[in-house]
């Protein structure tokens, strides 16, 4: 009796179905190739994963279900047929002690990496290894049962100099290898299944023909044209020196680098020049740029696309939650599933959370992160509470997965090993060894700490300026200050209570033109404007914050060097920042301000990071990620789902609300009138008209009759609650609705 891996929907002709042997061979070949690219010692593991992942499909139960239900590639998700546990049990039954290494991946190749032990359920690997599964063994599976696990696993032991727990490091490394194997299997399984089920879509995955040499030559040509058209100036001279240093450093062996260039030094394109030349020199596969904020990604992606436009589609993949749907193509949508693109630009939280993820959709791309140059922009913004696992992950990328990592920052690097910072990174090479001199040569602002300032005095100082930006720590404070300003078309407010499309409109159609024309422009904003928003004010006020945030605020001041010097005023407002990271950072910043006149000097920045990072040992693994990994590497009892839940950059309590601002009204109407959940394109468009709220805030809107949900998506139904200056006004949600406000 023939055994099949996949049928064709609505097609009973079994001659057209895919035999299991064909599918397992295709997956084995892909998985082996993916892992061999990373380490030749992983190749045999990849082959075995492909051959064993679907042994459960040989059972009569699965074949009967396939005949009745059509394709069941997702059958385990629906709970109909468990065909994944069989492979895990086969691996554990091997005489080798390494069976668990692939049992996690085999058991979870549809539902995600499991925890080892789930005491209250049946989903843990421990429980599934004891589960009764349909009998799959037969004469047809003898060749699979006879296969043996490789004798070794390519996991480097911890170095002799380690002062951090060596057993934890060993456990972490094995955990990373399992996740990389899982990634290779999942991507191979998806691609092989797609090639059979949807050959047309599979064909659309073909990446552009551009090589790393093509990209490097194209970027060099672009930069040469920029230089030839640029007027000689001290800033352009510095940018040329930074570019030359990046070219020279690209010849060095792969590993850890730092690129410490102050704002205005050409860091964006010079770091990419290093990455591309380094990839060519050492045969690496591409570039990943990790950035803290989506606003910077959109700016950088636009620059990159302009650079490589002549090379055609598929060179630059922009992957984040707020991607402009107008930039999305069929190819980019497919590339975003597994990062099969030469240059990927994404958020730091997308990159790092993927490295600790358990879900198939998040892990699928991991094997393509290996053997790339990874540029981590503004790396000093990494959360203190996740430092231990994050720095170990960076080490693994370099030491085990063939990556070069560039710690790219406008301030002094904060992550290098020191005697009191045992988890720090060793062997970081400075691309610009004279970075401290660049600080003085690119100085465009003077930062003054002016002490305490109440709201009344602050408003008076803001109104005395023709053009100024004031950045505070909370949305209520920003709203209150804006309301206290005189009513003028020159005054603006920015916060995350405004949807992204609204903020962008205010910036592009009102704030930037006024700044360019020299007309009055006063902006009250939360710290969102520090996230790489390209604006240039002669004067900036910054409420108490960390020195890293102060550096970003200063980057919005005299950015283009229009004035001889810009003025940044660092003050302590009436309200302390909210408890947690913001308050701790502000307290440390204020402490530095008491001891240093130049708050942005390398010495002040180093002192800040000593206080904020290096002396916070009890917070380095505050989320207890390492506890879920465990201390005993030989037992391999990893809690993968706990790891993923604990390693979060962003608070998962936030819920999305779509608002009827401008085009958002029509998009919400499209959502409400559809009988089906929104497709990807509509969701992408709606994302730009969304606001993140706490659960209790949604409850407040619901109680006021201002909330409706369509297909599980929350929408604001009362337009008067969304102000054209301030965005969402929760305080007005009292149930009283103007008659003209009801939406049709």
Automatic annotation (TrEMBL):
What Gene3D superfamilies has UniProt attached to this entry? 1.10.3210.30, P-loop containing nucleotide triphosphate hydrolases
The HD Cas3-type domain covers which part of the protein? Answer: 13-191
Record carries keyword Transcription = no
Domain (Helicase ATP-binding) ranges: 248-430
Q: Which InterPro entries match?
A: Cas3-like_dom, CRISPR-assoc_Cas3_HD, CRISPR-assoc_Cas3_HD_sf, DEAD/DEAH_box_helicase_dom, Helicase_ATP-bd, Helicase_Cas3_CRISPR-ass_core, P-loop_NTPase
* Alphabetical list of Pfam families matching this protein: Cas3-like_C_2 (PF22590), Cas3_HD (PF18019), DEAD (PF00270)
Q: Does the keyword Protein biosynthesis apply?
A: no
Print the keywords alphabetically. Antiviral defense, ATP-binding, Helicase, Hydrolase, Metal-binding, Nuclease, Nucleotide-binding
What the record says about family reads: In the N-terminal section; belongs to the CRISPR-associated nuclease Cas3-HD family. In the central section; belongs to the CRISPR-associated helicase Cas3 family.
**UniProt-recorded name of the protein:** CRISPR-associated helicase Cas3
């Amino acid at each position: 009796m023939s055994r099949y891996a996949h049928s064709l929907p609505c097609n009973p002709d079994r001659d057209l179905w895919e035999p299991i042997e064909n599918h397992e061979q295709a997956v084995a070949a892909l998985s082996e190739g993916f892992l061999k690219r990373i380490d030749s010692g992983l190749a045999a593991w990849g082959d075995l994963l492909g051959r064993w992942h679907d042994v459960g499909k040989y059972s009569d139960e699965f074949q009967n279900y396939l005949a009745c239900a059509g394709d069941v590639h997702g059958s385990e998700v629906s709970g109909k047929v468990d065909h994944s546990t069989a492979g895990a049990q086969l691996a554990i039954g091997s005489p080798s002690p390494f069976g668990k290494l692939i049992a996690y991946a085999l058991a979870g190749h549809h539902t995600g990496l499991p925890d080892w032990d789930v005491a209250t359920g049946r989903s843990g690997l421990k429980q599934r290894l004891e589960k009764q599964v349909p009998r799959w063994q037969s004469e047809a599976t003898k060749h699979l049962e006879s296969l043996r696990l490789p004798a070794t696993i390519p996991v480097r032991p911890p170095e002799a100099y380690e002062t951090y727990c060596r057993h934890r490091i060993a456990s972490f490394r094995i955990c990373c290898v399992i996740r990389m194997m899982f990634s290779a299997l999942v991507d191979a399984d998806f691609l092989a299944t797609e090639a059979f089920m949807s050959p047309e879509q599979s064909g659309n995955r073909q990446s552009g023909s551009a090589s790393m040499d093509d990209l490097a030559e194209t970027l060099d040509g672009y930069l040469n044209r920029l230089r030839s058209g640029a007027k000689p100036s001290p800033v352009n001279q510095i940018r040329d020196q930074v570019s030359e240093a990046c070219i020279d450093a690209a010849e060095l062996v792969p590993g850890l680098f730092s690129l410490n260039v102050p704002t205005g030094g050409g860091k964006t394109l010079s770091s990419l020049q290093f990455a591309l030349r380094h990839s060519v020199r050492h045969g690496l596969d591409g570039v990943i740029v990790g950035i803290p904020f989506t606003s910077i990604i959109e700016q950088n992606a636009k620059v990159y696309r302009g650079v490589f436009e002549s090379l055609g589609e598929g060179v630059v993949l922009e992957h984040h939650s707020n991607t402009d749907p107008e930039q999305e193509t069929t190819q980019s949508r497919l590339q975003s599933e597994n990062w099969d693109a030469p240059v990927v630009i994404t958020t730091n939280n997308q990159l790092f959370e993927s490295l600790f993820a358990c879900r198939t959709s998040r892990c699928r791309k991991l094997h393509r992160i290996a053997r790339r140059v990874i540029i981590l922009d503004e790396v000093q913004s990494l959360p203190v509470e996740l430092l231990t696992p994050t720095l170990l992950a960076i080490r693994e990328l370099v030491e085990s997965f063939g990556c070069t990592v560039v710690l790219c920052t406008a301030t002094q690097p904060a992550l290098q090993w020191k005697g009191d910072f045992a988890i720090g990174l060793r062997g970081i090479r400075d691309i610009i060894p004279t970075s401290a001199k660049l600080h003085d040569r690119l100085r465009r602002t003077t930062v003054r700490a002016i002490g305490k300032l109440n709201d009344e005095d602050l408003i008076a100082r803001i109104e005395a300026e023709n053009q100024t930006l004031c950045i505070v720590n909370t949305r209520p404070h920003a709203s209150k200050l804006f309301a206290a300003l005189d009513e003028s078309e020159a005054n603006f407010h920015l916060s995350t209570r405004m949807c992204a499309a609204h903020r962008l409109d205010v910036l592009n159609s009102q704030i930037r033109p006024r700044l360019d024309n020299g007309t009055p422009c006063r902006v009250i904003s939360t710290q969102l404007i520090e996230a790489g928003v390209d604006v240039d004010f002669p004067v900036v006020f910054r409420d108490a914050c960390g020195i890293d945030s102060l550096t970003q605020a200063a980057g919005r001041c005299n950015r283009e060097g229009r004035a001889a010097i810009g003025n940044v005023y660092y003050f302590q407002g009436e309200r302390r920042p909210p408890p947690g990271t913001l308050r701790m950072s502000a307290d440390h910043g204020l402490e530095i301000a008491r001891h240093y006149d130049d708050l942005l000097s390398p010495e002040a920045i180093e002192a800040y990071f000593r206080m904020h990072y290096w002396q916070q040992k009890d917070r380095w693994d505050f989320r207890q990620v390492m506890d879920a990994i465990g201390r005993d590497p030989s037992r391999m009892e990893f809690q993968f789902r706990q790891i993923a839940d604990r390693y979060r950059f962003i608070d998962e309590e936030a819920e999305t609300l779509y608002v009827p601002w401008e085009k958002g009204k029509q998009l919400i109407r499209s959502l409400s009138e559809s009988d089906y959940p929104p497709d990807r394109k509509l969701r992408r468009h709606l994302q730009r008209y969304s606001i993140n709220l706490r659960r209790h805030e949604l409850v407040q809107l619901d109680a006021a009759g201002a909330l409706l949900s369509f297909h599980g998506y929350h929408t604001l139904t009362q337009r008067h609650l969304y102000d054209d200056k301030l965005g969402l006004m929760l305080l007005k949600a009292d149930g009283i609705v103007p008659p003209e406000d009801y939406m049709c």
